[in-house]
Specification:
mainly alpha; 5 helices; two-stranded parallel sheet; about 60% helix; Rossmann fold; 2 strands; single chain; flat
C-alpha cells in the first residue's frame, strides 16, 4: 500500500475500516501495515468487522518482538530528525531573529 504519502494512506484505511467499507485486509507482513501498534490496529479493525490476515507471520519471542518494536520506534524518530535537516536554516533563522 505504498503511495508516497503513507500517513494519509493509513488514515484513509482507518476511515474506510471504521465506515465498514473493508471487511478483509491482506498484508504481507504486519510491520508493512504499521511500524508498531499492530495489535491496536487489529483490535480496531475487528471492532469494525474487518479481518486482518498476515501472510508471512513470524513467530517471535516476546523479547524479539520488543526489540523489533524498539527498533521501529528509533527508525521512525530518526527519519523525523533527518527530515528536519532541510528546515535547519529556517529554524535557525527563527531562533536567532530578534523579537519585535
Amino acid at each position: 500500500m505504498k503511495t508516497g504519502n503513507e500517513p494519509i494512506a493509513v488514515l484513509s484505511l482507518i476511515s474506510r475500516i471504521s465506515a465498514g467499507e473493508i471487511k478483509e485486509l491482506l498484508v504481507a507482513h504486519k510491520d508493512r501495515l504499521c511500524r508498531f501498534g499492530f495489535d491496536y490496529f487489529k483490535h480496531m479493525a475487528m471492532e469494525n468487522g474487518c479481518k486482518i490476515k498476515v501472510v508471512n507471520q513470524e513467530s517471535l519471542s516476546p523479547q524479539q518482538e520488543m526489540v523489533e518494536d524498539l527498533m521501529a520506534i528509533i527508525h521512525t524518530f530518526s527519519c523525523r530528525l533527518y527530515a528536519l535537516r532541510k528546515y535547519k536554516k529556517k529554524i535557525k533563522k527563527i531562533i536567532e531573529a530578534p523579537e519585535s
